[in-house]
Amino acid sequence: MNIAVTGGLGSGKSTASRLLAVAMSAEHLDTDQLCRQQMQPGNPGFAAFSQVFGSRFLSADGALNKQLLRQAVFTDSGVKNELERILHPLVREEVAEYYLHCCVTEKNLVVEIPLLFEVGWQHDFAVWVVVYVPEELCYSRVAARDGFTAEEIQRVCATQLPLSEKLKHAHYVIDNSGTFVSTVQQIAWLGKNLRAEISMGNARKTG
Ligand code: ADP
Fold this sequence. Notes:
Blueprint (H helix, E strand, L loop, with lengths): L1 E6 L5 H11 L3 E4 H8 L5 H10 L12 H10 L1 H29 L3 E4 L14 E6 L2 H12 L3 H9 L4 H7 L2 E4 L4 H20 L8
Parallel strand pairs: 1-3, 1-4, 2-3, 4-5
Bound molecules: adenosine-5'-diphosphate.
């Protein structure tokens, strides 16, 4: 079974998806991390990006200047769109290939995808889990984790579906507004439920 975990910025996707992978003895993929790997010199994302932008976002050593690119993504929708046009198909293919590997090794796969519904990849997955925390709590956790300003956080959130919309699509919701222990308990329940679904051979309808 392949399971997608999504949510808002800082809602706890990483925390919840890693716990769920442990609960199900599943493999885990983080699509943000796949994007970052694609943008390393020598990889296809970096090559395609360099063809479009030349050395505009490179440091003297030839590596990507992440700070410069991050600023451009915030302020220039042309750069953001082009980056997504390059990276999304590459990452989607990587996830599909890894799922094939999991099918062969008979493992489940948990994939963390911030923009699952926005990019329309939900039908690649059997189960859609949304991790929820109220907006104010997201903001304070992201500010503590990344040092982002409120304005930067708002700009990122403005490009995403509101969490309330994501919740409407969810097969399962994890409420991560409490303690880590509360989240662990919900994940333990979810893992058990999904394992039961698998053993009953449930074919979930994702349409
Ligand atoms: P996302 O992957 O959605 O951006 P993370 O899982 O990285 O979110 O969580 C954002 C921040 O909030 C991290 O610093 C994480 O350690 C913290 N965090 C996550 N869940 C909880 C929780 N239940 N209680 C307190 N802090 C949490």
